[in-house]
Structure formats: C-alpha cells, structure tokens
C-alpha cells in the first residue's frame, strides 16, 4: 500500500507534466504557480478535514493524492522555469537553479523526517493540519515577490503545436534526451529505495515510527549538505564529472545500508544516500535548464518531471514487489549495484563535460 500511495501521488505527474510544460511556456509562469498553490492548499485542507473528522478510507486518501499529483504536473515546470525570470545576472543562473532545485528536493526529504516524529507523538491529523497551514506562508510569500515587468507574454501557438515542438526539440537535442533517460533510470531503479525506509525501520532495525523519523531526518541532513555543496559550486565547473562521482557515492551508500542492522551505521549510510539523491536530481535539473533554449525550458522541465516523478511510482511498485519476494536487504543491495551500472554506462557522456546554452 505504501507503493500504491506513492503511485497515486506521482503517476499523474507523469501523465500531465507535458501539458504542464506547455502551459509554463505559453502563459505567465507566476500566475500559473499562484493558481497551483491555491489549489494545493484546498487539497491539503480537504485531507486534514477528512482525517480529523470522518471515518476515512484508503480510497479517499488515494483520490486526494491523485488530485495533488495532477496539480504538481503544472506546478513544477512553472516553478522551476520561473527562476530564469528572477535572475538578472545570467552568469548566476546555474547557481540559482541549483539552489532552487535543492530547496525543493530538500523540502521533499525534510518534510517526511519532521512528520515521522510528529506522527509518533501527535498523530496523522496534526501532520496534515500543519501541512495545510503552511500554504498560507507560501501564498503570502508569492504575493510579496517583485518580478521583472517584462515577464513573458501569452503565446499564440496552440497547445498541440507546442507539444509537437517540445517532442521535436527533445529528439533533435541528444544531450537533453540523455539527461532525461538518466534521471528516468535512476527514478525507476534507485530513488524508490525511500519507499522501503519504513520497512528498514520496523523489520531490519526493530524500531518504530520514531526510528523511521530518525532515518528520514538524517536523510534530510545529507540533503542539506548536498544543497549547500551544489549552491556553492563555481559557475564553470564540470557538473558532468561531479554527477558521475555522485552516482558512485549513492551506490556505495545503498550497498552499505543494505546489510547493516546497527542503528548508528544505518543513520550514517542514510545520510550518504540523502546527499546522493539530492545532488543527483539537482545536478540533472541544473544541466537541463542551462543547456536548453529559454523558449523551450518549461517543456524541458516537464520532460524532467515525467522522468523523475513518473518513473518513481512505477519504481516503487517494482521495488515493493521485489522486496516482497527477495527481501528488503537484497532489494536495496541491487539498487546500489544499479547506481554503479548507470554511472559506468553514462560515464563517456558525462565525463567529457556539457556546454551550457548561451543565455
């Protein structure tokens, strides 16, 4: 059911992210982002009321999760591609993209870490309530932003023409396609190890919800280290080489995590994997945005979202099924090996370096 829950949230992003990218390139990205955040707040409030005041069923939770997945398909391309409109000095764009992507991925890791601890103390309803209340700060912050007056105008090109142009751009730009393939493979085979963290906490470490919270917390600490590291990288450094090294580090962390029954070492290796996943997603996002043309950036991010979010639910179902028969430890070990294999396959492409697009 954990795999099904992840599937319900993330698979709609796979289905609708292409249209989300077209919308981000066609309309004012700030307005699109504001609308998606308001809808997300309504969804969060509905989930809170459902859990606190009704005898809810799993189906109702999955239905609301699906709605959130659809909203995210339009939110992510608009949010990520808005960064280029906010940065005046284009030499800083790479660092800004890395910082923005790091913050988003960091929240995805730290949020569950905090909720795991609150869940054990106060229950699920309070977790959902805090999430709903947090949207007031998000929307207020958006309304306080001062953006350039020359934000992109509405495009006259039709939706389907925009879709064809995006697919044509992807096929005619091999480097973009390779990055999409890379993040897709990682999302299918490596990143879904997070789905098994509750099983590790309960079965391998003989812990409880608090243990799960600790694992998520140190994963978040690793992610913070990755965010700080990537946000401080010099503009002209070869991110492709760093990405190869990150894949090997992530693989090592998973291999070590797969066969430890000691809480201290499990927390240490979970920190390494948190650093690896944060850095992996952020570097690929940065490379995609800095090597794609500005008018196609929203659609490129939508391809990234399809591969990143679309493959994770499929991977969660796959990893959950394999672990049910082969065991959790063998499954995580195989995921670490998969990271090594992916690093070796993409080594020739990544190590030579990728030239950024001229802004």
Would you write up a description of this structure?
Helix 2 packs antiparallel against helix 3 (58-81) and helix 8 (174-189) runs parallel beside helix 13 (297-326). The N and C termini lie far apart (45 Å). The longest helix has 30 residues, at 93-122. It contains 14 helices and no strands. It is globular, with a radius of gyration of 20 Å. With 359 residues, the protein is an all-alpha fold. The protein has one domain: MFS general substrate transporter like domains (Growth Hormone, Chain: A), CATH 1.20.1250.
Kindly summarize this structure in a few lines.
About 80% of the residues lie in helices and about 0% in strands. With about 350 residues, it is an all-alpha fold. The model has no long low-confidence stretch (mean pLDDT about 80).
Describe the largest sheet.
none
CATH fold description: Growth Hormone, Chain: A
Mean pLDDT equals 82
Q: Give the full name of the CATH homologous superfamily.
A: MFS general substrate transporter like domains
How many structural units, i.e. domains? 1
**Which outline best applies?**
globular
Q: What percent of residues adopt helix (DSSP H or I)? A: over 70%
Number of DSSP E strands: 0
First and last CA, distance: 45 Å
Radius of gyration: 20 Å
Poorly predicted runs: none
Instruction: Tell me what the CATH architecture is.
Output: Up-down Bundle
């Amino acid at each position: 059911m954990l795999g099904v829950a992840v599937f319900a949230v993330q698979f709609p992003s796979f289905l609708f992210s292409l249209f989300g990218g077209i919308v981000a390139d066609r309309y004012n990205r700030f307005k699109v982002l504001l609308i998606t955040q308001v809808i997300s707040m309504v969804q969060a409030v509905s989930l809170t009321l459902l859990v606190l005041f009704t005898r809810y069923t799993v189906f109702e939770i999955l239905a609301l999760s699906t709605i959130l997945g659809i909203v995210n398909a339009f939110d992510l391309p608009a949010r990520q591609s808005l960064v280029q409109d906010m940065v005046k000095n284009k030499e800083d764009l790479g660092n800004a993209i890395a910082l923005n992507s790091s913050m988003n991925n960091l929240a995805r890791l730290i949020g569950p870490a905090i909720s795991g601890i609150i869940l054990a103390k106060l229950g699920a309803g309070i977790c959902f309530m805090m999430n709903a209340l947090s949207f007031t700060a998000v929307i207020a912050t958006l309304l306080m932003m001062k953006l350039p007056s020359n934000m992109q105008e509405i495009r006259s090109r039709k939706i389907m023409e925009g879709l064809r142009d995006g697919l044509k751009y992807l096929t005619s730009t091999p480097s973009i396609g390779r990055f999409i393939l890379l993040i897709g493979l990682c999302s299918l085979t490596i990143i879904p190890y997070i789905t098994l963290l509750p099983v590790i906490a309960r079965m391998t470490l003989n812990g409880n919800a608090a243990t799960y919270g600790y694992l998520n917390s140190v994963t978040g600490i690793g992610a913070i280290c990755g965010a700080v590291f990537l946000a401080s990288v010099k503009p002209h450094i070869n991110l492709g080489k760093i990405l190869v090294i990150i894949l090997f580090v992530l693989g090592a962390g998973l291999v070590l995590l797969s066969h430890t029954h000691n809480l201290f070492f499990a927390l240490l290796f979970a920190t390494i994997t948190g650093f690896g996943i944060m850095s992996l997603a952020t570097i690929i996002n940065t490379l995609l945005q800095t090597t794609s043309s500005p008018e196609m950036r929203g659609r490129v991010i939508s391809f990234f979202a399809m591969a990143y979010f679309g493959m994770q639910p499929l991977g969660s179902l796959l990893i959950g099924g394999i672990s049910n028969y082969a065991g959790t430890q063998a499954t995580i070990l195989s995921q670490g090996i998969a990271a090594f294999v992916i690093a070796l396959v993409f080594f020739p492409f990544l190590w030579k370096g990728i030239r950024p697009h001229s802004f």
